[in-house]
Structure prediction request, 362 residues.
Amino acid sequence: MKSLFLICFSFSLFITQYISITRAQQYDMTGAFGLNYGTKANNLPTPDKALNPLVHYVWRLRIFAPDNGVLDYLNRSYPTQGYTFAVAMGTLNDDVQKIADDQNYANSWVQNNIVPWTNTIFTHIVLGNEVIPGPIGNFVVQAMINMEKAIKECTTQNIQVTTAVAMNVLGVSYPPSAGVFTEDAMEVMRGVVNFLQNRPQYKLLVNVYPYFAYANNPAEVRLDYALFNTTDIVVQDGDLQYSNLFYSMVDAMIWAVEKAGGPDVQISVSETGWPSAGNGDIATVEHARMYVNNLIATLMKSGTPKRPQYPMKTYIFAMYNEDLKPEGVERNFGIYQPDLSEVYHVDWPKWNETVNLGNIVD
Prediction:
């Protein structure tokens, strides 16, 4: 059971009144789904209108950088309405080196972006999104070290420090047990994995997109395998059997992490989704609806073949279609249009009123 002291004092009354805390002895995805809240658009609704429809379905929110409008709404929503979202917040990629080079900068970042929001639960600070491998990626480990120190010095919250990586950090991903990092990514990823291995509650965030795997190689990848739409065993990897590409990709990352020295490092999926337009008959509303709903239904049953008992926190990409992104599929991952109409319907899990606190703050 997660101690209430893992949450800043201002939330202790909220937790006591509204959440029944039980130790989950079995696979439990309660509260494990989240949404990516991107804001690269000029026509989005205000945060209150954007988030209010989701409060009964989604417990988690990922924002890519501090956003005072979003944070101010979240901070006000608990005392005025009795609910809030658990927030995974990124740094700007350009801030990673500054945080790594200067502990004072890291402290100021926390003072400016965490401390003022006393009624907000922050679960993760994400140092960079898909910056490994690359010049910024070389600063990620030290940035994580400095950020962790800043959080401990400046706040009373227990906030995980991590980074988000794309599948391109893998040099081999098939079969999953062959998963290994590329030479370009290996050194930095060993440092990231070592940092996380020594902090068992922290998780590596991974962006997992079967869509791109299929779209880039439709001759070799089955569409039904990418869409969770078959019960066939498509990949047999030793004793492990795969009937969907998502689990194969996640397990390839787990294998790579283990080989890099992280047998106990857990994975959360920071992004996954399917575009509803922008690439002919591959990116369609029906495929997007099928992918997201089948994803949820599959995750509700069990974890991956390699870790079937591990309920993997998963953030769906994305909340809205964003018109300032590059033309094509990048603009069309949203579940909602900016006018709040559905692009497609999502069958969110219906939670009962007993929520495992560990699943919310973990």
In short: The CA atoms of residues 76 and 119 lie 7 Å apart. The radius of gyration is 19 Å. The longest strand covers residues 121-129. Residues 1-25 have pLDDT under 50 and may be disordered.
